[in-house]
Amino acid sequence: MLHLSLAPLLVLVLGVSLGAAFPHDTLGKGCRLSQYQSIAPEQRHAVDRMRQEFVTTHKCNTKLFHRRWNAVNLPVSDRVLLVAAELNLTTAMLGLPAAPAFAELCREPLHFFRSAREAVQGCVSVDPSHQPSGRLRHWLHKLQNAMREESTECLRATTILHVLQVLDNLRCAALQDKC
Description:
The protein is built from 7 helices and no strands.
């Protein structure tokens, strides 16, 4: 079971599951995601190198990132909420204590993901009239259950192994209708 203080992630998951989001397919005025429309090759390489160097013997049954849909299949507003939840989880998992060599590999990607998380949070506002799609609601519920039922090691392994998917979803959210 996850014993970390992931209050911001839980608030996001619970808020979205109750219908809080932002206007249909427009992003708020404070939303500045254009810098993520194209992820720099050096940044992608640093993230991929971290992922490749990650070693785990922990076997997980969670299929949190195994979805039958992609971010492109979601409305723009849902893409941003998906990425916000993924970034909260990713930064929490990369911020966990690690062996010195791996911690050094995580340093640059963690900084990047924290910056992206802050930018995405500026895009999330509250509009109770908007209901996230069934796909997103189902995935957020799955995330909530995984956080309650899975071990920290399992969540960390799953997140790191699928970190390139988080990058792709961030890019898709930044591209909005062009994704």
